[in-house]
Amino acid sequence: MDEVLAELAAMAADGTKSTRSGSKPSLAGAALRKAIMAIWCLCFCGMQWRAIGQLCDIPFNTLFTLFARWTRLGLWCRLLDRLRRTWRLACGDNAEPSAVVIDSRSCRSAPSCFERGFDGGKKINGIKVHLGVEKHGIPLAIDVTPANVHDTKGIVPVLRELAGQGFRGSALGDLGYRGKRLAKAGQKLGITVKPSARGCDGKFLPTGICWVVERSFSWIANYRRLNTIFERTKEHLVAFIEIAFVYILSRRIKRLIAEEASA
Hints:
The protein is 49% helix and 17% strand. The protein is α/β, with parallel strands linked by helices. The protein has two domains: 72 residues, no CATH class; 168 residues, 2-Layer Sandwich (Nucleotidyltransferase, domain 5).
C-alpha cells in the first residue's frame, strides 16, 4: 500500500493526473488506503466488485473507476518496473537483465471474458497468459491471447514489448518456441529466441534459469482472480497480474529492509 501511495505521489509530480475531476472530492487519506486494500483483496480473494464495495463501505463503481483510471495511466506497470529494478540492485545485479525466460499458461475463463479459445493440448476453454520474466521470476512483459493461439504467435507481442523497453539479448523458451518464423521475428527486434528441452519421459528437468517462469506461474496461481478469468478487457487482466507481482516484490523488499535493520 505504501508503494502504491509513493508511486501516486511520483505520478502527481510528473504531471500525470491520477484522480478524476468533478464536483465530488477525490479519495484521500484513510479512504484512499482502504480503496487500495480493496483492489488487492479483489485480486487475491477473487471477489466481485459489488461484494468488495459493500465490505469496505466504498461504492463499487467508485472502486472500479479508480482501478480503471490507474490501469489506463499505467500505474501498476510503472510500480512493477520500479520495484523490479530496486530488487535487482539489492541482489547485486544490473537494473536491466541480459536474458529473459518466456512461457505461457492456459487459464479457464468465463463466457463473459473478453476473449476465449479452446486449448486442445490441455483441454482448457479460456485464455493464455504469455510472460517474459528475468532470472528472479519478475515479468518484464505480459500479454494475453485466446487459448487456441499457438505459443509462437502469442509470444510475438511480448517480444515487441521487450524490444520497446530497450531489451537486446536472449529469450529462453521450451521446444514450443521452435520455428524459423519466430526466430526471424526475434532477430528483427534484436532478440535471440533459444528453445531448449525442459523434460524427458514426462518429467520436468530444470535447464539453467528456465525453471523460474514456472515458479512465476505458480505464484500467480495463489490469486483466485487469476485462476478463472472474468475480466472483460485484456488491460484489466494484465493489471491484476501486475498487482500480484507488485505485492510479491513489496513483501520481499520490506523483508530485506527489516533484515538489514536488524543486522
